[in-house]
Amino acid sequence: MNEDRRVGVWLVGGRGSVATTAMTGAAAVAAGLAEPTGLVTMRPPFTDAGLVGLGDLIFGGHDVVETPLAIRAARLVDDGVLPVGLPGALAGALEAAESEQRPGITGREARIEPQASLARMVSDLNAFRTRHDLGRVVVLNVSSTEAPVEPHPAHENPAALMDALDQNLAVLPPSALYALAAIETGCAYVDFTPSVGARLPAIEALAEAHEVPLAGSDGKTGETFMKSALAPAFAARALKVRSWSGMNLLGGGDGAALADPARAQSKLDSKGRLLEEILGYPVEAPIYIQDVRDMGEWKTAWDHVVFEGFLGIRMKLQFTWEGCDSALAAPLILDLIRLAALALERGESGVLTNLAFFFKDPAGTREHQLHRQYEMLERWVLQKVAA
């Protein structure tokens, strides 16, 4: 292993299904036990960009649950997410990642003692960097979705935000405290959830001041991925979309979290912005999310599209998307880690708009068409290679 190329990866929600799948998958691909299926950055032209290797990633994380990674991985085998025997073959990698798990921030801590919580996160990240002598660290949020944040004047100005935290005012949810800790320690921050994270003017300004990159938000893994590919086709053919209804059935931790209407609203807001941005006109587009515990780690999305053709004739498209959320998310997470590490290496700061390809609600851009997002990504990754 090339010590100079190592990159630290700190996963918020580090003992969850998505994080466990990503860490196991990284070790499996690095060891030659699995193919890099689903990893955009593991195929040309990105293979020429000098991205960090999966075997050079050092994992740690925060979580509010205490289930060890080995047990979580065994459960994922039972659920059909991980191949039988793979966690056992990679026991050393899982043990190493487990040794770097630390207690996360609870909602109560964020409300009662935000300053102490922030200080603890900063200390954990600095200690992780020091223990492994890491030049680059990427913090990536894969924790449960939060409810939308209540607006506060402190969100607009960095000085006001820090003053509010000094007074222990509850102005930030856990995701934003993690983002702030990443920025203060010089880490890249990536939000794979629809939680607020770094998407506040004060935190974005602090990222610019500390010269660290941000990316997000809400990973585009399934139904919205299909929308971002199909909606441009309707626009290109001059077919008018009249309505686009979606029903999402899911279980596991995500389903349980989104059973809370307040937390589900964050997801609905994230999923709902895409169609109007692509088509250029309002579309009736109700989205329903239902927790079905029996589905476990799997999810199903059914979409019903009504569109208008020549002479006003109405027609329909229906499609069903069935998949395993962790298996869909894990390769994208590994892609984002490699790309955020590249941004750190290049000294880039602020919002990385060129990573829109990976997100339902991409920060810093209103471009939602999948093919154009891919072109943005390709140009950004290869710009220094060509030079």
Q: Any descriptors?
A:
18% strand; Rossmann fold; 387 residues; four-stranded mixed sheet; Dihydrodipicolinate Reductase, domain 2
Number of strands: 11
Q: In sequence order, what are the helices and strands, one letter per element?
A: EHEHHHEHHEHHEHEHEHHHEEEHEH
According to CATH, the homologous superfamily of the largest domain is NAD(P)-binding Rossmann-like Domain
Count of domain modules: 2
Low-confidence stretches: none
Shape: globular
Report the portion of residues in β strands.
Answer: 15-25%
Pfam family, one: Inos-1-P_synth
InterPro entries: Myo-inos-1-P_Synthase, Myo-inos-1-P_Synthase_GAPDH, NAD(P)-bd_dom_sf
Family: Belongs to the myo-inositol 1-phosphate synthase family.
GO molecular function, one term: inositol-3-phosphate synthase activity
Structure, explained:
Helix content is about 45%, strand content about 20%. With about 375 residues, the protein is an alpha/beta fold. The chain folds into two domains: about 5-220 and about 325-385, Rossmann fold (3-Layer(aba) Sandwich), CATH 3.40.50.720; about 225-325, 2-Layer Sandwich (Dihydrodipicolinate Reductase, domain 2). Helix 1 (about 15-30) links the parallel strand 1 and strand 2 (about 55-65). The radius of gyration is 20 Å and the shape is globular. GO terms for molecular function: inositol-3-phosphate synthase activity. This is Inositol-3-phosphate synthase.
